[in-house]
Amino acid sequence: MNDTKRRQELAQFLRTRRERLSPEAAGLSTSSRRRTPGLRREELSQLAGMGVTWYTRLEQGQDILVSPQVLESLARVFDLNAAERDHLFILAREQVPADPYPLTSTISPQLQSTLDTIGNPAYITNPRWDIIGYNQAMVRVFSGSDAFSTHERNILRSMFTNPLQRTRLRDWEKEARGTLALFRAGSDRYVQEPWFKDLVAELQQASPEFREWWPQHDIQSAYTGRKELYHPLVGLLILQTSTFQVIDAPDLRMVIFTAAEAETARKLIRLTEPLQAQLTG
Is a pLDDT exceeding 60 seen at residue 24? Predict the structure, then answer.
């Protein structure tokens, strides 16, 4: 198939999938009169997080380069199955999409041992944002109990449905929006996975803010800013966040919190002093 024919096939594929989408299924108002079936290009481009002019050129079969992230976004909006997703990538990029990494749900004893030797709060999370490994400093600073509850072990769920997050975080909205943008940026490979769809559907129902912000498609590739929270024993903590990929498990990230200023450093010592004694004893 030559390039012109391939782009024509892509244009036809996009058009037919757009026309199959009902406004009701996409959560859009149907009060206005529609002359054609399905979604308008303006509506589709908004749901997919791209400009309408750019999407129109794509649907017209013009010669433009399409990133995997854009195609994953379209696959999600169109709710394509695995075969349809492959077909979309082949028509647009002449290659099949990268398969998702397996969703890791546990860590090795060696990795847990590494966490335990870190004096500062640290945890490991997977693409679903489940906390699958953490140290006791993390618990003392962020939980206030001896262990994270099942609810607390999913960061996204806890952020949007746990009332304590709103009182403990100095700027809950900023943190919640940033968390959501990070989750979306790291979930391109997983948009067709059942767990991804279930988690998004659950939070859309449980949280008005999630329901409002999710369609905005904000993306943030990394979080390196400060996290400010109130601890019931020591008051305000200002923490710096550092994130690392786990090389032998590329779907995992290790996050370590350090003090961003001297007063917080003193408070962290107070909170974690018994643990430091165990590490050096």
Answer: yes
Q: Which helix (H) or strand (E) holds 215?
A: none
| % pLDDT > 90, the chain | 44
In this structure, is residue 103 part of a structural domain?
no
3-state DSSP: the chain helix, strand, coil percent, rounded to 5? 50, 10, 35
Does residue 19 sit in the same domain as residue 124? no
- The confidence score (pLDDT) of residue 155 equals 94
User: Domain for residue 56, yes or no?
Assistant: yes
Alpha-carbon span 91 to 93, nearest angstrom: 6
The answer to whether residues 185 and 273 belong to one domain is yes
pLDDT in tens, 126-145: 999 999 999 999 999 987 55
Please give the Cα distance from 12 to 231 (Å, whole number).
Answer: 56
Query: What's the rounded Cα separation, in Å, for the pair 45 and 23?
Result: 13
- Token pair, residue 68, equals 């995997």
Separation between Cα atoms, residue 279 and residue 276, nearest integer Å: 5
Both 76 and 134 in one domain: the answer is no
The DSSP H or E segment spanning 123 is: strand 122-125
Give SS3 for 43: helix
Q: How many domains does the chain have?
A: 2
> In angstroms, rounded to a whole number, what is the distance separating the alpha carbons of residues 23 and 44?
10
**What does the mean pLDDT of the chain come to?**
86
Give the other-Cβ count within 10 Å of 81's Cβ. Answer: 11
Secondary structure class of 254 (helix, strand, coil): strand
Give the range of the structural domain holding residue 269, as residue numbers without chain letter. Answer: 109-280
